[in-house]
Design goal:
- The structure is a single chain.
- The protein has about 190 residues and is mainly β.
- About 10% of the residues lie in helices and about 35% in strands.
- It has an eight-stranded mixed sheet, with no helix packed on it. Strands 1-4-7-10-13-16 form a six-stranded parallel sheet, with no helix packed on it.
- The protein is globular and about 50 Å long.
- The relative contact order is 0.11.
Length: about 190
């Protein structure tokens, strides 16, 4: 009885709050929520079957939430079947972010398909930043605290080590680590 009360008080109320705060209207699919999920933007967000959001026995379970933003009307985020994403994940799409089936993402991972702001000094506030689609292929494993930047494709079955920042494409069936991420071995 105590565990059920704790779940309602410390988890379920937060999940409901973030559902209420979400503004994205073009959402399909229904993920399994263990942690709050905030969906914003004018674009499309699609969840496949059996997408797990949050991990109970993992860091930041009670303090963080998921943030998915499909900024413009043509922006899209697509998460495939059987994807499991740990706590504190964020993804911001100006163009498109695709996470294919059976991917496993560690806690505090971030994917951004854009520069956030225009890089030119006189256009940082008013200009449109560069953007390029990101694709995380099937069976990819991202360790904890991984950041994926614009225009990157991570090949099927590859592993990205903890704390890595991925700035360029990673081929299939490899392990890559570092800042910027470099391939260190084949699988």
């Amino acid at each position: 009885m105590v565990a059920k009360f704790k779940n309602i008080l410390f988890v379920q109320f937060r999940i409901w709050k973030y559902q209420w705060l979400s503004t994205c209207k073009r959402v399909t699919g229904k993920p399994i929520l263990h942690q709050p999920l905030l969906l914003v933007g004018e674009g499309k967000i699609n969840f496949g079957k059996n997408v797990q959001i949050g991990v109970i026995n993992s860091p930041n379970f009670y303090t963080h939430y998921f943030y998915l933003e499909a900024r413009g009307k043509d922006s899209a985020i697509s998460i495939g079947d059987n994807v499991s994403i740990n706590n504190g994940f964020s993804a911001v799409a100006f163009t498109e972010i695709i996470i294919e089936k059976n991917a496993l993402l560690g806690y505090n991972c971030a994917i951004v398909d854009n520069d956030g702001h225009h890089l030119a000094i006189d256009e940082r506030v008013t200009g449109t930043p560069k953007s390029a689609a990101v694709c995380i292929a099937e069976n990819v494993f991202l360790g904890d605290n991984v950041t994926i930047l614009k225009g990157v494709t991570i090949g099927k079955n590859s592993v990205i080590g903890n704390g890595s920042i991925v700035t360029k494409d990673i081929p299939e069936n490899v392990v890559a680590v570092g800042n910027p991420a470099q391939v260190i071995r084949n699988l």
